[in-house]
Amino acid sequence: MDRLVFLLGTGLARGAVLALFALALVLIWRGARVVNFAQGAMAVVSTYVAFEVTSLTGSYWLGLLAALLAGGLLGFAVERGVMRFASPASPLSGVILAIGLVMVLQSALGIIFGPDYRPMRVPFDDRAIVVGGVPLLSPYDLFVLVVAVVVMGALAVLFRWTSLGLQMRAAAFAPEVSRLLGVRVSRTVTVGWVLSSVVGSLAALLLVPTSLGLNPHATDSLFVLGFTVAVVGGLDSPVGALVGGVVVGIAMSLVTGYLGAGLVPIAVLVLLVLVLLLRPAGLFAAAEARRA
């Protein structure tokens, strides 16, 4: 029972990070109908910015702020300088551009920083708190959970109760009608890219210190798992990203604890295949209205 409680806690913390990253993918899909395969590479660029700023200043918090600013600027640059040239008539156009961007960003990071893993420190202790002889979440896990909940809550408020959020939702679902109503669709798409890049950068910065460390490919597995979460929950559903992240995070933790880390990729693949077979649009995908 003690092991189960510990695995559930760590799975919840990891699931929160996966949910954040999946939410970044959902934001882009809802706003531009593009699966951003460059999300992981963009996030690792921001993480390198955080690493360098933290190394120079000694402050984790300044590094965190620098990473978020860099993520926002990178999202703006990618949307305006790359993705805006993708042909709307070809869904593969944006995918090909994103994959090319991955190669460029990871190659540039490899040239500048090299392929070695660099350890990143965290602002809190990463050892589990023991209560009544039962190991629970570590202070850093609690920090990750709080940050993830606050960010997802803020995004929910943005999309449901603010004018900008309503414009972004309208531009995503009915761009031509939105233009007729005075919504600047191109601007809202850019805002969506900026928000997505910031959220993805935050997810990477929270996860990388708990893994092998930072290198140009440090977020490859994060992208694969985040994309799985987004597909399981439904690419159109922020709620699906949240629930899917928790489900996948806990499943990974339980498989690691009871069956071994080597079986985690197989377990995630089985979960993805089952969802695609039973509900291809995702568990929380909205039902499509009938058309005459």
From TrEMBL:
Q: Pfam family of this protein, just one?
A: BPD_transp_2
Give the residue spans that cross the bilayer.
6-27, 34-53, 59-78, 90-113, 142-159, 189-208, 266-287
Topology within the bilayer: Multi-pass membrane protein
* Protein location: Cell membrane
Q: Which UniProt keywords apply?
A: Amino-acid transport, Cell membrane, Membrane, Transmembrane, Transmembrane helix, Transport
Among PANTHER family, the record links this protein to: ABC TRANSPORTER PERMEASE PROTEIN, BRANCHED-CHAIN AMINO ACID TRANSPORT SYSTEM PERMEASE PROTEIN LIVH
- What family does this belong to? Belongs to the binding-protein-dependent transport system permease family. LivHM subfamily.
Q: Output this protein's name.
A: Branched-chain amino acid transport system permease protein
Annotated organism of origin: Cellulomonas humilata
